[in-house]
Amino acid sequence: MPYFKPFKMIILGFDGVLGSVLSGALDLFSFTGVSWQRFSNESVEPRFNVQIASLGGGDIRCSNRLIMQAHCDIRDVTECDLLLVPTIGDSIDKVLKQNSELLPHLVRLANTKADIASNCSGAFFLAKAGLLDHKIATTHWGYANKFKADFPLVDLQENQFVTHSRSESTNQSGNIFCAAGGSAFYDLGLLLIERYCGREISTQVAKTQIIDSKRGSQNSYTNVTLHKPHSDHLIKQVQEYIEENFQHSLQVSSLAAMVNITPRTLNRRFQSCVAMRPIEYIQAVRIEQAKRLLELGDVSIKSLADKVGYDDISSFTRLFKRATELTPKEYQDKFSRLAI
């Protein structure tokens, strides 16, 4: 096997970083070209030269109180093939404020050939640096509302596990990748390994690390925030009624009559307050209840539709899969253990 010059990868270290992602990414890329080869009695050829860089090269205090030593000073990094920004583990606003001096270095490296990647709330760093303006991105579903409010110029695709944007700037020739929450950095890592090393190497890493590389979107992990903050008491009344009576037949016309407004007005005000129409809200409440029942594992698929207000099981199954990208049975198999 020919020798491959390792790609230079920098992982950004900062106080408040999620330690598991910082060390996990270091392991994932450092052992590319190593683990499989050891198992197969082949020559070990690391494909990435991975370094953790912090401001000043100082120690990094992770959110779990682990202290990690940086390999180098981000100010001394003049070029790299790939820069990864891990998850923010502490308060996002506090971490961004305390690490504001890192932002110019993100911009500086983005203006080279480097690919830039973030995991979960690490996307806030890229957005704060202006690198995601008018580009698609993703982050953990729990941070989606905050991200949209803080960075309205970013096209946030919160249901995607991984997004990929290419800058139209003449200064920046690299690509920007974002991964969703938690362990989604494995999906991102495999994608980047395939980009640099080819599909065969990426598959080897997936097998040695036992990573499911076809998980799709994060829709199936999303807990819909049904009560979005708003001050319209009439709409809150309708929301509460839907949540208490979702298992019964609900009509928009009846809901409108209940609060003495027209269906058209109810649709308009509901859309303004909750960012969905009443019928969509009813469906969201029913799907969320179905997910909870499936997670408890004490309901049959056959009876599930009836328990959440659907007479037609095929129609319910279709709506459930559209919302989660999993059938009810697939969802139960995947998540019922979480209730144990």
UniProtKB/TrEMBL annotation:
Pfam families: DJ-1_PfpI (PF01965), HTH_18 (PF12833). It comes from the Bacteria. Keywords: DNA-binding, Transcription, Transcription regulation. The keyword Membrane does not apply. The keyword Transmembrane does not apply. Residues 236-334 form the HTH araC/xylS-type domain. GO terms for molecular function: DNA-binding transcription factor activity; sequence-specific DNA binding. InterPro entries: Class_I_gatase-like (IPR029062), DJ-1/PfpI (IPR002818), Homeodomain-like_sf (IPR009057), HTH_AraC (IPR018060), HTH_AraC-typ_CS (IPR018062), INH-QAR (IPR052158). This is AraC family transcriptional regulator. It comes from Psychrobacter piscatorii.
